[in-house]
Sequence to fold (612 residues):
Amino acid sequence: MRLLVALWAVLAHILGCADVLHAGHQPLSRIAIERATAALVDSASINAHPTVLGLKGQSSDWVVVEFSHPNPSNDDWVGVFSPSGFSSETCQPENWMDQPPYLCTAPIKFQYANFTNDAYNKSGKGSLRLQLINQRADFAFALFSGGFSAPKLIAVSNNVTFTNPKAPVYPRLAQGKSWNEMTVTWTSGYSIKEAVPFVEWGPKGRDRTLSPAGTLTFGRNSMCGSPARTVGWRDPGYIHTSFLKELWPDALYTYRLGHRLSDGTHIWSKSYSFRASPFPGQESLQRVVIFGDMGKAEIDGSDEYGNYEQASLNTTKQIIKDLENIDMVIHIGDLSYANGYLSQWDQFTEQIEPIASTVPYMIGIGNHERDWPDTGSFYGYNDSGGECGVPTQTMFYVPAENRAKSWYSTDYGMFRFCIANTEEDWRPGTDQYKFIEHCLSSVDRQKQPWLIFLAHRVLGYSSGGWYEIMMGSYGEPMGREGLQDLWQKYKVDLAVFGHIHSYERTCPIYQNRCVQDGSNHYSGRFNATIHVTVGGGGASLSTFRNNVPYWSFFRDSDFGFGKLTAINNSFLLFEYKKSLDGNVYDHFTISRDYRDIMACSIDNCPRSTLAV
Fold:
């Protein structure tokens, strides 16, 4: 198996194809900052204003950057650096024979100097309007010539800062280990020696209580390779998680993040709200959005690379627009595509904050979070950019027994979700396989009739062109081995995947055979699992095979997401919505009573009976 994976990696490198080489698509990786040289020009200048941001307590704000260069060119660009003392940062070269680089920290964002400045090449003067978010440190702007491959530092600006760079920001809700527990995770610049973190919360309009928070962080040496250990490194600050327990079903709660300083004063975030989960088995309208492979993008147009992740803004926009009709979000892997540039995790958590601060934002692990050679990941690729899962497992809470493994189950009313980790071995006999079987077998289908399996890579069926080119298969090799027997035995309604950046739905399928024809409505007893790929969250689209397999009922190469709605314990609606407009482009329903779930179908009946 390891030899086969290695061969695939070599082939991917040769072909330069698709998801294996997504690390090359991180916009910041275009800049060879380690090759930068100092070429300061006295007559060149760059200035930014205002110098103080967030005066109204907001965590994002806009700056205007004005610059001039006596010898302008199309290759000139402006980099945003944080902390502002980037030129004094020191680091070791990647190879011991190399000299330490002059600059060893990548910018957090960048833009060409002639962007919106058509006359720049003639006048040498221009300006940019850029959005900054609170990232626990001040900022400086630098003007470079020489393009991205041989950058020359021409001028450095004044410093810009937020009123309180250390303020608590970007809360992320997640389901706890029990149905009546909600967790709140956020980022700040306060260590536990400086301030005590907590959450003030309670039912809306009633008394509030204080719940303490635990604090985590990680250092450069926790990264497994470059760029995360080198030019992509940026201090992640402190990650705090508080557990809000004994919640009332469906009750509305308000909360705010707090830090108590040593002098007794308090630092507060703004107020947020969430609705507690329904009781397992509770019949009420329950709506869950699912997608993978979203990434992040800049609303000011910076960091663009072939519109690789620009569609992520549309996805978040449509979800925010419909947030009153959404109860939970599951992002099944390839979250930020930071790929070793740690500053991008702040950008991602800021982009999803309107969603994640209001409804549980559950995650799965993808190749761009975990994969790195010789670190125990199932695939030996370098897709994580040296992160090897550490930022993801620190910045997002999941109710797993072992957060480093990140497979877990979560219940929401009439749903049971079993979320696997495809970057760890899932084959029969492994710990993850045992978890999957326990998750599927332990659910009470009378209370939770809707059983959903989720994973990042396609362990089921996909007609994505990448699988054809790279692996000659319809999904991950060995993906279905062992697992499809579990899906059939325990009557899994849906298996949902990402990784392939498009949408596809199969017929109810088992062992490469459509047990039932594809349809927009299924009723009666369970026949086989329907497989859905929803990897079009925002990263560059994937293509399909030219031929349409007999089991592929609907496919669409566009950006979008899925939405599950449990109407009651016998009726389920699935919708595929496009990120461009939020409209429904595919849907199907399942109507099934408890007796239908219990009824026999292929390979899920007892082999013998005591009946006489």
